[in-house]
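Hi there, hope your week has been kind to you so far. Please have a think about how the structure follows from the sequence. I've dropped the whole record in just underneath, so have a look:

_____
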Amino acid sequence: MTDWLVEEGSLDPELALVGSGGGTRFRGSASPAAPPVLEDNLAVFLRPLVVRETRKWFGEAEIRLDALVLHGGAETATLFHPRTFRFPRVADGDDLADQEKGLMVYYGKPAHFLVLGLIIARDTRDSDDLAALLQASARSDDVSSLLTQLAAAASPHVAAVQAAMQAALVLGDVAYKLVRQVSPKVLGLYRANWLGGKDNFGVGRHPGQGVTRVKDFEFAYDVVVDRAP
């Protein structure tokens, strides 16, 4: 989808399959038909998240950040993680992630791949959170089918992982359209696709130095391993 102004990462399902190593730890499954299970949780923190231009001539703006993380796995209810953050009275140059560790947008155990989507827009009065928008859309046959395909990554086979990855990308497009319906003044979009085998789920700092500038905001983020005791 061309509306995603910056898109990073890989989409090769063969490079998504993981066994062990790469800095994250896996335990073998009791069933050979199931993927290895990530032992450690991963967290994604935004830091900083600076709005360079609110596109409001006078006064301060209401801003919403919608973050959507999708990944493979056996538990359908945990495969997508929509979060909406609202920031009142934002002026040009404000850092919306001005916290010691940043703004956490995801915490969990992905399988095979992790897709991160960020949408920042001018907020509108009484608009629903992304979770509510997606829940309402899940009643449609199209979205319900995508959720079923996303759950296909419970299998370690390349074809199943490929179907799940494509479903994750389309669900990201659906999320963007839903946000745009309630908040049409989008200030920037970003999507990253990190594979388990090739990219170690994107663990590390992005970008390695500096920040990424997308339209009217700039940011960086960390994918952090939370070691199990």
Notes: The chain is about 20% helix and 40% strand. The first helix runs from residue 130 to 137.
